[in-house]
Design a protein that fits this description.
The protein has 381 residues and is α/β, with parallel strands linked by helices. It has a single domain (54-378), classed as Divalent-metal-dependent TIM barrel enzymes (TIM Barrel, Alpha-Beta Barrel). The chain is built from 13 helices and 14 strands. It has helices spanning 16-21, 25-32, 36-43, 73-76, 88-99, 124-136, 156-172, 189-208, 246-253, 265-274, 292-298, 333-338, 364-378; strands at residues 66-68, 103-106, 140-144, 176-179, 213-218, 229-232, 238-240, 259-264, 277-279, 285-287, 305-308, 310-313, 321-324, 346-349. The strands form 4 sheets. An 8-stranded parallel sheet has the order 3-2-1-14-11-8-5-4. A two-stranded antiparallel ribbon has the order 6-7. A two-stranded antiparallel ribbon has the order 9-10. A hairpin with a 5-residue loop joins β9 (277-279) and β10 (285-287). α6 packs parallel to α7 and α8 (189-208) packs across α9.
Length: 381
Amino acid sequence: MKFRHAPEVAPVEGSDLGHKLGLSRRQLLAATTGMAGAAAVAATAIKPGKAFAADGTPLIRDSKRGIILYTVRDAISRNPLTSDLPSGFKEVFKALSDIGYERIEFAGYTQNANSEGGANLGTVAGAKLLRKWLDDNGLRAEGNHGFIPGSWPLTQADRDNFKIQLEIANVLGMDHMGTGNDPTSSNYKADWDVAAAKWNTLGEIARSSGYVKLYTHNHDAAYNFLLDSGPLDALGRPTRSSGIRKLEYFLQITDPKFVNLEMDIYWAHVAKYKFTSYTAADGSVQSDVFDPLALVQAQEGRYPLFHAKDGKINTGTANGYDMVPFGTGDIDYTTFFRGLTSGHHYPMYEQDTAPGNATTAPNQSLEFAELSYDNMAALRA
């Protein structure tokens, strides 16, 4: 695996020079080591077959390109005593920084027990160690898929645990904290009302703890149609829909000051493939094709983070897509990011299937991370 940052290059202390020149950390390192030309060539190394322009303004600035560590979870959990490949948070941070990533989204704080710092860094002391490693590699934490209380009303134990997680987020310097799950798995309006009340409360607690925005990460089911009308079933629950999708309703009834979202663009396209009609209150079947970009455009400020996960069309599967490295699939990311008016989003590369066979492809997730970074960098306006 070939990284573009020479391992002997020392970190740039502070960022005053970079700020004065208007350069990102990666640009400054390239300029000071004579690698700018090579980096520019590498940034266009997109896999053939993806129709991205090679000129123009980057659709995702280098300072915005990120990765969720779930993608490289095999490297995080790798035993450093039995492998020379990057293992544990400290070494993986270095590998991701060498590739060019500047933003990190956590998927929990555990690693191999033999890695420096031990197995569990989900404490304030552990967060201080993680923060040092992030800073050493010019990385910034942008979020975490962590603890969101399941109870409602909140128990005192849940409140206390939630506040500890917020303290960890503040130590790490995160602007956002979230979860990998939908607000509720239910199809019923009443359950989404409860979820909204809980998230409004948690979001207010998060903002009062510091500048931490709470976000929910969504899968395809959240874009199915809400059951909110029509005849009631034996339990008194509605059986038909007014045509509003569950997450659209959630956006309507939550406070934008306190509740934000992280659209997984892959799962949103799966929803576009799967959920194309609903049964209206009068029993008629109505067609409605989901437009992920239109949902974001309606309240763009509520989407600080995205999961930039690509998919290859495969209608032989229930989801209609197979996960592949970013830039090698069929999801039109050029159109998606061109459709945004704000540059204040952080697209986090994710691929659930990135880890390879421990014997035949032990470093696959990091290799895919490099390929995906190059393809993110190649997106042009």
